[in-house]
Automatic annotation (TrEMBL):
Localization: Golgi apparatus, trans-Golgi network membrane; Membrane
Active site per database record: 373 (4-aspartylphosphate intermediate)
An individual GO BP term: phospholipid translocation
Positions of Mg(2+) binding: 373, 375, 770, 774
Domain spans labelled P-type ATPase N-terminal: 61-121
Protein name: Phospholipid-transporting ATPase
GO CC annotations, alphabetized: endosome; plasma membrane; trans-Golgi network
Top-rank lineage group of the source organism: Eukaryota
């Protein structure tokens, strides 16, 4: 049984089950269970929000629980059925922009304030709300369906009726869940894959609770009240975690935690409603426009000398000039975002990309900091053996056939001798003789094949069953299990050169030579790798010769003091590290029987010590670690994802600083950073020393301050100390670094770093990850990008944007992010210009007619102006682009210009305001000067000139024509001409057919637009923008 901390199990393949829980305690592998008796377990566990209290769990009887526990459901929705409408409306009207229009529409119910038909105010507002509600509803339904799919997965539960099927949402604390993967594993153990959780593809060994292994196999035994209680301490090795996969073995687990009490859920913050910086800027501009609206209204009343009921006049002028704040702005921007999202999804060069948050695509165009996970995001977590170095000779990927030849030669020579080991290693005197290259290669390969914690496991391949495959060491059925992918790659390499690990258990190991001979080794002692020791060792006895050998491998920094003196180790380790390889130093020491017996006695004695046990054990082991014979160096590469290096270079050239936040160890993170060229070859690296106190942190920060243009590598523990005492100073220094690597980071720390960057710099951040431990960081960032791959979908489901490969990030930001931001900026400013034009004309009209609060245009004219007459050409600006996507990718420096926010700034806003005032004044004064006799002629001339001016201004703004833009222009013009027949109430149809009308409209339109065309030509001629130099 394994104790399961949740239970809901997801099937990712027919042969593997994924436990969607924090973990379950492993009670053991039991098959054929038909009866279930009552067993009461009392766990002293961390419950809920971290308070420690006893939890009594009745196995298989959840109804007997003494307290209520959360339901085992996943819920990623922002609203439920009852809160949807109130929640959406609240999120809309909490912004000044929409609240203003609601109050405006409501004011038309007051008779004294009404200016026209109610529909002129309520129809635009209703349209805005309907589009918003529909968009939110679609996203919520999609989210609900994704959650429902997960919560409805069917799993096997052990009950009094035998094995029954249960939905994931129906699993409760105390349920016994059966999780199995059809493969062979060691008795009383199973292997776990955590790639869904942290991106790590290596397998973790899990052990059952020892007392449950003594239960009968036919049924779960029971304990009567009179039976003595069994007390047993539980550790991390007895748990199966949330979102992990049982890779081998059959597990029966008791559910301990469900739903909100899972560690993975508590590590994840609630999804927040992200509001883009662009939306906040637009909101700020609308407040300025509202201020202008109030000022203009007050000026109009002041010029009337506040006569009569002047306060009512103020409200009427506020309504009259309400178009200064354009209601269509929000609709246009929201529809534009939907178009940008659709373009991202349909881009064939980034297939599989999904937009989950369609409200923030323009955020992608202004990213200053990119925070990325390492394992599974930058790397594939697939290790490849690249280099074997023997000091005088090195073997790369292209010369492995030589190694294979030497190994084969060593064993064919050995077979004619009484022992199977190379002659050079038999007698101590022989070590003084220069060894042959065959002997040296053979010893190095044998050492690599023995010093590890890898277990070969045999699976059925459809032709051979498990038992037969294990008996005959079938190559096609064998897979290697280990807690480190590095070790698997080393063992796979020794297999490729002829020395194969074919069997292993707790006390022995079997190797197969190129000639087919099986070598048996007894494992006497294993000293596992730890973060502190940075090395692992093994003592083995060769069964055929009785020789005892101590093999050790480890990091060069610790092995340099253990091996015999040599003049090449440090230099070659440095060379291989610069290539981004993970370097291990392999050594050996031959022991006599007496030496080993003496060591064993001291080692056992040290392990029995009550005080300073770990120190005494380490001291005994270190007595062996002296003057060891250096055999070789191995170089293993963690394969990068496709095109990671060019993508990171593009991001760097675009002015984006990249930080790598990983839970991996420091050496591995540094190697990957170099290999991916996150840290360039000529760049200095400052490795932040481990600090635990305020004084140490202060000294180390001072040392770091003296370095310039230096990449920073810091561990999570040191980071926590620095942020506790010197948060401002540390962030200031870190933000100046070209690259930062944070290793041993917890999910909470990753989110904290993102939050601090946002607060300290005010810049936009983008977080990229692929595992469940990246969800907090992704949700905290302004833009969260999930990489969807073999490590699962947890990160991609929680992200705003989901990509299939890291390299797609370059195009997502450089092309789609840049275009979305520039197009949104152009669209918003043009909509503001369109509204300011008609408001300026209204102001001029009212001024001329003695400041009367009388509308210039009424009814359908005012609605048609913002919809069918100008909507299509104005909205077609979402298709505009200044450069081709290939140019944007080739010159990422173009992206750097956007980081300053120039496309939408107070400067550009002021320019458009001045243009609007100029054109509105020209059109209105022109119409007043040239009108003939009737008021309807003013309306006809001015409105027609206004429509033509808007169409010409769209043409002036467009940089690259698209056929839909031309269609939009012609369609709008056709709609206006066709509608004149029905607008006889506002426009004299006979007058517009005269030559007088045509030449007057032409003159006014030319005067309003021609100067702007001339200015644009002069600017392009004498001060062209950056992109125009690339397109010419």
């Amino acid at each position: 049984f394994y104790i399961v901390q949740n239970g809901s199990v997801l099937t990712s393949k027919p042969t593997e089950l994924l436990v969607n829980c924090y973990g379950m305690f492993c009670l053991g592998g039991v098959k054929g269970v038909t009866t279930l008796f009552q067993i009461k377990l009392i766990f002293i566990l961390c419950c809920g929000m971290g308070d420690f209290r006893p939890r009594t769990v009745w196995l298989g009887h959840p109804e007997k629980r003494e307290q209520r526990y959360p339901r085992n459901v996943i819920n990623n929705q922002k609203y439920n059925f009852f809160t949807f409408l109130p929640g959406v409306l609240f999120n809309q009207f909490k912004y000044f922009f929409n609240l203003y229009f609601l109050l405006l529409a409501c004011s038309q119910f007051v008779k004294e304030l009404r200016l026209g038909a109610l529909y002129t105010y309520w129809v635009p507002l209703g349209l805005v709300l309907i589009i918003t509600i529909m968009r939110e509803a679609v996203e919520e339904i999609r989210c609900y369906l994704r959650d429902k799919e997960v919560n409805s997965q069917i799993y096997s539960k052990l009950s009094t009726r035998g094995t029954v099927k249960v939905k994931s949402s129906g699993i409760q604390v105390g349920d016994l869940i059966i999780v199995e993967k059809v493969s062979l594993s060691l008795p009383g153990s199973c292997f776990l894959r955590t790639d869904q959780l942290d991106g790590e593809t290596d397998w973790k060994l899990r052990l059952p609770v020892a007392c449950t292994q003594r239960l009968p196999t036919a049924a779960v035994s029971h304990s009567e009240d009179g039976d003595p209680p069994v007390n047993e301490s539980l550790s991390i090795e007895n748990t199966l975690w949330a979102s992990t996969v049982v890779a081998s073995g059959t597990v029966v687990g008791v559910v301990i935690y469900t739903g909100k009490e899972l560690r993975s859920v508590m590590n994840t913050s609630n999804p927040r409603h992200k509001v883009g910086l662009f939306d906040l800027e637009v909101n700020c501009l609308t407040k300025i426009l509202f201020g202008a609206l109030v000022v203009v209204s007050l000026v109009m009343v002041a010029l009337q000398h506040f006569a009569g009921r002047w306060y009512l006049q103020i409200f009427r002028f506020l309504l009259l000039f309400s178009h200064i704040v354009p209601i269509s702005l929000r609709v246009n921007l929201d529809m534009g975002k939907m178009v940008f999202s659709w373009m991202i999804k349909k881009d064939s060069k980034i297939p599989g990309t999904v937009v989950r948050a369609s409200t923030i695509p323009e955020q992608l165009g202004r990213i200053s900091y990119l925070l990325t996970d390492k394992t599974g995001t930058l790397t594939q977590n697939e290790m490849v053996f690249r280099r074997l170095h023997l000091g005088t000779v090195a073997y790369g990927m292209d010369s492995m056939d030589e190694v294979q030849s030497h190994v084969f030669s060593a064993y064919t020579q050995v077979n004619s001798q009484p022992t199977h080991d190379a002659p050079a290693s038999r007698a101590p005197a022989a070590t003084k003789v220069r060894k042959s290259i065959i002997s040296r290669v053979h010893e190095a390969v044998k050492a690599i094949a023995l010093v590890h914690n890898v277990t070969p496991v045999y699976e059925s391949n459809g032709v051979t069953d498990q038992a037969e495959a294990e008996q005959h060491y079938e190559d096609t059925c064998r897979v290697y299990q280990a807690s480190s992918p590095d070790e698997v790659s080393l063992v796979q390499w020794t297999e490729s050169v002829g020395l194969t690990l074919v069997g292993r258990d707790q006390s022995s190991m079997q190797l197969r030579t190129p000639t087919g001979q099986i070598l048996n080794f007894t494992i006497l002692q294993i000293f596992p790798f730890t973060y502190e020791s940075k090395r692992m060792g093994i003592i083995v006895r060769d069964e055929s010769t009785g020789e005892i050998t101590f093999y050790m491998k480890g990091a060069d920094v610790v092995m340099a003091g253990i091996v015999q003196y040599n003049d090449w180790l440090e230099e070659e380790c440095g060379n291989m590290a610069r290539e981004g390889l993970r370097v291990l130093v392999v050594s050996k020491k031959s022991l006599t029987e007496e030496q080993y017996q003496d060591f064993e006695a001291r080692y056992v004695q040290a392990k029995l010590s009550v005080h300073d046990r770990s120190l005494k054990v380490a001291t005994v082991i270190e007595s062996l670690e002296m003057e060891m014979e250096l055999l070789c160096l191995t170089g293993v590469e963690d394969q990068l994802q496709t095109d990671v290096r060019p993508t990171l270079e593009i991001l760097r050239n675009a002015g984006i600083k990249v930080w790598m936040l990983t839970g991996d160890k420091l050496e591995t993170a540094t190697c990957t950073a170099k290999n991916a060229h996150l840290i360039t070859r000529n760049q200095d690296i400052h490795i932040f020393r481990p600090v635990t106190t305020r004084g140490e942190a202060h000294l180390e920060l001072n040392a770091f301050r003296r370095k310039h243009d230096c990449a920073l590598v810091i561990s999570g523990d040191s980071l926590e100390v620095c942020l506790k005492y010197y948060e401002y100073e540390f962030m200031e220094l870190a933000c100046q670094c070209p690259a930062v690597v944070c290793c041993r980071c917890t999910p909470t720390q990753k989110a904290q770093i993102v939050r601090l960057l946002q607060e300290r710099t005010g810049k936009l951040t983008c977080a990229v990850g692929d595992g469940g431990n990246d969800v907090s960081m992704i949700q905290e960032a302004d833009c969260g990008v999930g990489v969807e791959g073999k490590e699962g979908k947890q990160a991609s489901l929680a992200a705003d944007f989901s990509v299939t490969q890291f390299k797609h990030l370059g195009r997502l930001l450089m092309v789609h992010g840049r275009n979305s931001y520039k197009r949104s900026a152009a669209l918003s400013q043009f909509v503001i210009h369109r509204s300011l034009c008609i408001s300026t004309m209204q102001a001029v009209f009212s001024s001329v007619f003695y400041f009367a609060s009388v509308p210039l245009y009424q009814g359908f004219l005012i609605i048609g102006y913002s919809t069918i007459y100008t909507m299509f050409p104005v909205f077609s600006l979402v298709l505009d682009k200044d450069v081709k996507s290939e140019v944007a990718m080739l010159y990422p420096e173009l992206y750097k210009d956007l980081l300053k926010g120039r496309p939408l700034s107070f400067k550009t806003f002021l320019i458009w305001v001045l243009i609007s005032i100029y054109q509105g004044s020209i059109i209105m004064y022109g119409a007043l000067l040239l009108f003939e006799s009737e008021f309807v002629h003013i309306v006809a001339i001015s409105f027609t000139s206004l429509i033509l001016t808007e169409l010409l201004m769209v043409a002036l703004t467009i940089q690259t024509w698209h056929w839909l833009m031309i269609v939009g222009e012609l369609l709008s013009l056709a709609c206006y001409v066709a509608s004149l027949v029905f607008l006889h109430e506002f426009i004299d149809v006979y007058f517009i057919a005269t030559v007088s009308f045509l030449w007057k409209v032409t003159v006014i339109t030319l005067v309003s637009c021609l100067p702007l065309y001339i200015l644009k030509y002069l600017r392009r001629r004498f001060s062209p923008p950056n992109y125009s130099k690339l397109t010419s």
